[in-house]
Amino acid sequence: MKYFQPVLTPTILIGNSLYWSYVLGGACIIEFDLDTQRLALIEPTPNAYAHDDTVFAVMPAEDGGLGLIVVLGFGAQLWKWKAGVRHDDATWVLGRTVELDKLLPLGAAGKRKPLALVGFDEENNVTLVRTSCGIFLVHLQSMTFKRLCNSGSARDIHIYNAFSSFYDAGNTHDKI
Questions:
Q1: Phi and psi at residue 147, in whole multiples of 5°?
Q2: Which of 28, 39, 97, 117 could link 57 by a cystine bridge, Cβ 3.0 to 4.6 Å?
Q3: What are the residue boundaries of the structural domains of the chain, listed by start?
Q4: Using one digit for the tens of pLDDT, what is the confidence trace for 15-38?
Q5: 125: how many CB neighbours lie within 10 A of its CB?
Q6: What are the contacts of 122-125 at 24+ separation with CB within 8 A?
Q7: Which long-range contacts (CB under 8 A, 24 or more apart) does 88-92 make?
Q8: Starting from the edge strand earliest in sequence, which strands make up the sheet with 12-14, in order?
Q9: Whole-prediction pTM value?
């Protein structure tokens, strides 16, 4: 599987659990419940590892539960985990499909290699997508994007940790 995602993937916090994708001799999603201190394995959708150029990553679903983004070629599928009464009753439900090659300005050069998911910001519902023509920040609700860097500076970077910061100018202290 020459274009499969790296073993290390971004970790996200949903509720009181940490989730991350794991790929090594198979594929699974690992859940670590911070309250009970227990690990659980969740099988991803069958198409999450069906082809050589498929990548997937955990993400929050639109309602805040566990979600999964599966990128196959230049399209992305957004899935939601529907928990059942028992663990074996749970299933993945397809939410929507996005044609990333129509959303992002890839051009002919950008379609030479498959896309890679390299980061996720669960607070702002954005994913970071590496292409052969640069890194893009894609907002999954509005389907808007922003180019973060060009291909030359992104070539050797495999995982990004997104962060946000703010400054509240109204909370300054009076000088004495």
A1: -80, 125
A2: 117
A3: 12-171
A4: 999 998 877 666 788 999 999 999
A5: 17
A6: 122/12, 122/13, 122/14, 122/59, 122/60, 123/164, 124/162, 124/164, 125/59, 125/60
A7: 90/42, 92/44, 92/45, 92/68
A8: 12-14, 17-23, 27-33, 38-42
A9: 0.73
